[in-house]
Amino acid sequence: MDMRYVSVQGGPLPVWVRDGEPAALVFLHYWGGSRHTFAPVIDRLASGGTVVSYDHRGWGAARDLPGPYGIEQLADDVLDVVRGLGLSNYVLVGHSMGGKVAQLAASRRPDGLAGLVLVAPAPPRPAVDAQAADALAHAYDSRATVGDALQHVLTHGPLPADLREQVLTDSLAASDDARLAWPRHGITADITTAAAGAIDVPVHVLAGQHDRVDPPASLEANLLPFIPDAHMTVIDDTGHLSPLEAPGALATQIDRFTNARS
C-alpha cells in the first residue's frame, strides 16, 4: 500500500492506499489498534476495490496530530480522508471504537457512502457505565496490562507471536490524551438520538461469538434497534479482535457486502 497525506484539522494525516476499482473500503481501527489491525483481512479480500487504512489521530503514525481526540473529531477525520482522496463510492469498515466513529460519520449522510460494515462495534447506546469506563482507562498502562487484556478480555484464544507483539506495540503507541479520550468520553457517549437513527445506508454488523467486550447479545439490545437497516452475522470461534483472530471469515463477509453494493 502507498502512503499519502491528507489534510485534516491540525495538520497532515498519513493514509495508506491500495488503488483498485472505483468502489473503496475505508478501514477504521479499534481503541488500541492501528492500520495494521486490518492487514490480515485486507490480504484476504477477493474483490479488487480500493483499500484505505490509517492510524487515528493521536495514535501510531498520527501520534503528533493535536487534539481534540474525541469520536466527533475522529468522524471529521474520516470525512476529510474521503474528500481528500476523492472517493465517490465507498464503504466504511469500523472495528469497536472505529465502529462508533463510522456510525457518527454515516449519520451525516456524506455523498458516496454505500454502506457500513461494523466489526464488533461499540454500540450507539453505551453498554458500560462510568465506573467500568474508568477502569478501562488503565488497560494500556504497560505491556503487562495490555497482555492481561489480551488474555482475559480481547481474544478468545492466543494470537500468533507476531500478532501479539503487534497488539502490544500498537496499544502503547498513543499520546496520553488520545489514549484516554475513549474511556473517559467516547465509550459512554449515547449517540442513539443524535446519530444512529439518521444512518440511511445498509449496515452489516459482524459480531464475535465469544466477544467479551461487545458480545452479540449486547449488540442485539444496544445497536440493532436503533439503526434502521442493520443486520448482524455472528462469526464463530472468535473474540473481540476478530480482524486478527478470524480474518478470512471477515474478508468473506466484507466481500459479500461490498459486491452487493457495487
Describe the structure.
It comes from Actinomadura violacea. It holds the Pfam family Abhydrolase_6. Keywords: Hydrolase. The chain is α/β, with parallel strands linked by helices. The chain has one domain: Rossmann fold. It has an 8-stranded mixed β-sheet, sandwiched between helices. It starts with a strand and ends with a helix. The model has no long low-confidence stretch (mean pLDDT 96).
How is the secondary structure organized here?
Elements lengths: L1 E7 L2 E8 L2 E8 L10 H4 L6 E5 L17 H15 L4 E6 L1 H11 L5 E7 L10 H7 L6 H12 L6 H11 L4 H11 L16 E6 L7 H7 L7 E6 L6 H4 L1 H15 L1
Helix pairs in contact: 2-3, 5-6
Q: What structural keywords apply?
A:
262 residues, alpha/beta, Rossmann fold, eight-stranded mixed sheet, globular, hydrolase, hydrolase activity, AB_hydrolase_1, AB_hydrolase_sf, Alpha/beta hydrolase
What would a concise description of this structure say?
This protein has 10 helices and 8 strands. The protein has an 8-stranded mixed β-sheet with strand order 1-2-4-3-5-6-7-8, with helices on both faces.
What's the CATH superfamily, by name? Alpha/Beta hydrolase fold, catalytic domain
Can you count the helices? Answer: 10
Largest sheet: spatial strand order: 1-2-4-3-5-6-7-8
Average predicted local confidence, pLDDT: 96
**Which secondary-structure class do the elements indicate?**
alpha/beta
Distance between the termini: 22 Å
Portion of residues in helices? 25-40%
CATH topology: Rossmann fold
Give the CA-based shape. Answer: globular
Total domain units: 1
Examine the secondary-structure arrangement and name the CATH architecture: 3-Layer(aba) Sandwich
Quaternary structure of the protein: single chain
Regions with little confidence, pLDDT below 50 for 5+ residues: none
How would you characterize the largest beta sheet?
A: 8 strands, mixed
Rg over CA atoms, rounded to whole Å, is 16 Å
Total strand count, please?
8
Order of helices and strands: EEEHEHEHEHHHHEHEHH
What is the percentage of strand-forming residues? 15-25%
**Any idea of the CATH class?**
Alpha Beta
Pfam families: Abhydrolase_6 (PF12697)
InterPro entries: AB_hydrolase_1, AB_hydrolase_fold, AB_hydrolase_sf
GO molecular function: hydrolase activity
Keywords: Hydrolase
